[in-house]
Amino acid sequence: MSFRIVVMAKQVPDTRNVGKDAMKADGTVNRAALPAIFNPEDLNALEMALRIKDQIADCEVVIVTMGPPRAADIIRESTFRGADRGILITDRRFAGSDTLATSYAISMAVRKLFPVNLVIAGRQAIDGDTAQVGPQVAEKLKFPQITYAEDIVAVDEKSITIKRRLERGIEVVKTPYPAVITVHGSAPACRTRNARHLIKFKKAKTSTELQEQSLDYTNLFDKCPYLHIQEWSVDDIEADTTWLGLSGSPTKVKKIENVVFTAKESLKMNGTDEEMNHLMKTLIDAHIIG
Amino acid sequence: MNNVFIYCELTEENTIADVSLELCSKGRKLANDLGVKLEAVVIGNVDETIAEQLKPYGVDTLHLANDKRLSPYTTMPHAAIVCELFRQENPEIALFGATSVGRDLAPRVASELRCGLTADCTSLEIGDHSETKSGKEYKNLLYQIRPAFGGNIIATIINPETRPQMATVREGVMKKETVANAGNISVKNVDVNKMVSPELFAVEIIERHIEAQKINIKNANIIVAGGYGVGTKENFKLLFDLAEVLGGEVGASRAAVDAGFVEHERQIGQTGVTVRPKLYIACGISGAVQHRAGMAESATIISINTDANAPVNQIADYVINGDIADILPKMIKYYRSNSK
Domain of B267? Predict the structure, then answer.
């Protein structure tokens, strides 16, 4: 392939609607009680990659995700929507990695896929909201970075021009390749599954999944190698283990607490005219208003 | 050596951004706790007079990188300067605004220096730590306190081994406070050409449209805030009416912003602005943890809601069980006829 785009995606617990049953008695979150979803902004990133693929001949979109074996779901979902293939970085030795260690691991995987023109990711993941992995992967690869991307203004084989969404406006920037782009949630939503892709990749599996489900795909993989979702370990990406997991993570969690607010003795009323007039008088007399 | 550093952002008008002054105020306190100095880094197209803006906040030293190529902000040249300065100066702590600049720059710097970074801290404190396994004792670490997991828990993060201990903080979270008898501020000019090579300008800015801040809910004394319970964009008009009569601003919960009732700049909470007004009137806001974290410090809180069990009621001084369409006009009417 002459043009390669890596999309970094993450499977995350859906933290947007955490019910009471998802909180354990000690105040920590019971991840198992939350559905695992495709990180929303990573879907915007996938769409951006697919739009570039639509415009550039001979372009390959590769999904890279790091996580437990079940994160292969993210890769299958991406291929249903138009990605060409995916790599699952999975190894127990990654456990406990903070954003720096994670960025190192992903950057090593991207290196294995070189030559790479673009690395695209969601701005941030909803389970951490740090927005750090994108810029840190860019630094590890020594690529320029464009964060908060909202739209493609122009793209060709030599450079890409991107509109960025900032707090109080927009900025249009142009970068040569290679580069890292992180995509804001205001970017175009991801296209839905395509029936042709769905049929093609429906049976795609990792070796771990085949083992767990006692399936023999030997013949099928010979005939359709794209159905074999690759799993890369620490050794496959030739990572230095001292840079991974807890030892490679400078940040440590000292304490996790429930959010506690001091409850007030509140005055309850039903909003009758007398009550409201009295309340407003109280506020005016206390110089809170007026 | 081992001082507290603040990366100071410049506004479109080339003044120091509010978020950076807020961080200087916090940084001053942290530096006092540690018995060290407070240093600021300004990178852009500004001269030494910018130091005057930092002096009232107790900044001891300003590192100034003045070059027209450094404004507007682009990632790589700023990152190169900050990394090189930090290598020379070995800061104990380095703080950045959790803005589109700070959240772009800080992770890149942390990665290059291989040190720990915590995003969007809501509180910073100095404290000790003992490692349970090794029994190793650490004195005077920076506790970086932040919401996690969609705001459902609060985590305290530390970086025991790496320096600087880095954190980003959103605008409005820390209080902007000048110090009495601020001392002199010394300016050290950074040799930009030595630190920045031409290939770091690979990313080219083609166009910029940045608007001046129109809505400033952070500094409002009175905030009338609406939630999803307000129902429609049209219903928000009642809130604007009350805010106008009282001389306040309109705020909103994330749900109301996501529903398109009002613009994002009005969002209050962990992913919006933190406010602490004299009066906060919550209209149809249930009060998810994420929202309460951004307004719980308001001096007086009124909650108007048809749901008597809305979580925000627990922290309200006055809870009015009713419909805003009925209640707000009563408040407007009384105020109009009874204020001077």
Answer: 222-338
